């Protein structure tokens, strides 16, 4: 059934009750897997991801997406596993799935340019992501979960890599240049509307990840990007609060 966007206006509500510039509920936890060097659990709406980090450890090669590396820098390897029950179609994605491979490379490249890989020559940092549920913003959720897991693992980085999606209220075929932007699209909206995933570094506006897989008029792109960057600032505040809560618990346990 096509998504009815006729009521999507800056003054009205979307189908899930949010306004155009509102994020879905986000929940983040750190150190959820004690056996891993670093781990996290993240929910963005109904999209749920668990991330574990192994390393930096002695160099290894795997079939996952990789970035950076060489004799003087660590290699960042990313492996994504998508549960068969995570989506509506219950489709099991194999290791050679094109979309999964693209996400692995995107995440590996993003963190290769953010982590201080020069401190760990001849080493590998392995980021493993397990997708438990999908309802839009999957790449953004993976990037956010990986950021928290890397912080938990104590891997030094320039700043948080935070991401979210933004879209437009009209499809490409409608040719509506005056369409309004939307923040943090859910799964149904992603199927019907043009959207992009934007990731920024820290609280500023430096874009480190920008992925768009749908067609949109050039006139709408600037507004979508501006809304996405503003959403990343909101996401950073949420992730920062999760890190501070975790740090406070650690300090309290030491004092006791």
Shape: globular
Using only C-alpha atoms, the radius of gyration works out to 18 Å
Q: Characterize the largest beta sheet: strand count, sense, and whether it forms a barrel.
A: 6 strands, mixed
Strand arrangement in the largest pleated sheet: 1-2-3-6-5-4
- Helical content (DSSP H or I, runs of 4+): 25-40%
The average pLDDT is 85
Overall strand count: 10
Number of helices: 4
Residue share in β-strands: 25-35%
* Helix and strand run: EEEEEHEHEEHEEH
Name the structural class. Answer: alpha+beta
Poorly predicted sequence stretches spanning 5 or more consecutive residues? none
Question: What is the end-to-end distance?
Answer: 57 Å
Topology diagram in text:
Blueprint: E1 26-30, E2 38-44, E3 47-58, E4 65-68, E5 75-82, H1 98-112, E6 123-133, H2 138-153, E7 161-168, E8 181-183, H3 187-192, E9 195-201, E10 207-212, H4 218-255
Parallel strand pairs: 5-6
Antiparallel strand pairs: 1-2, 2-3, 3-6, 4-5, 7-8, 7-9, 9-10
């Amino acid at each position: 059934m096509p998504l009815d966007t006729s009521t999507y206006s800056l003054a009205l509500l979307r189908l899930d009750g949010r306004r155009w510039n509102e994020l879905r509920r986000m929940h983040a936890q750190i150190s959820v897997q004690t056996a891993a060097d670093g781990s996290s659990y993240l929910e963005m709406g109904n999209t749920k991801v668990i991330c574990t980090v192994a390393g930096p450890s002695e160099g290894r090669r795997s079939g996952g997406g990789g970035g950076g590396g060489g004799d003087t820098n660590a290699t960042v390897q990313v492996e994504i596993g998508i549960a068969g029950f995570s989506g509506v179609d219950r489709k099991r994605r194999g290791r050679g799935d094109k979309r999964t491979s693209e996400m692995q490379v995107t995440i590996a490249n993003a963190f290769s340019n953010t982590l201080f890989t020069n401190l760990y020559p001849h080493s590998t940092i392995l980021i493993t992501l397990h997708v438990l549920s999908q309802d839009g913003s999957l790449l953004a959720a993976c990037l956010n979960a990986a950021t928290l897991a890397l912080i938990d693992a104590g891997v030094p980085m320039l700043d948080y890599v935070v991401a979210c999606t933004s879209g437009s209220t009209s499809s490409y075929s409608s040719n509506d240049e005056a369409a309004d932007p939307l923040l943090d699209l859910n799964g149904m909206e992603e199927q019907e509307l043009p959207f992009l995933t934007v990731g920024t570094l820290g609280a500023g506006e430096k874009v480190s990840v920008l992925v768009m897989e749908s067609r949109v008029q050039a006139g709408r792109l600037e507004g979508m990007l501006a809304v996405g960057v503003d959403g990343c600032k909101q996401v950073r505040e949420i992730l920062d609060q999760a890190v501070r809560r975790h740090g406070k618990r650690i300090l309290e346990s030491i004092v006791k």
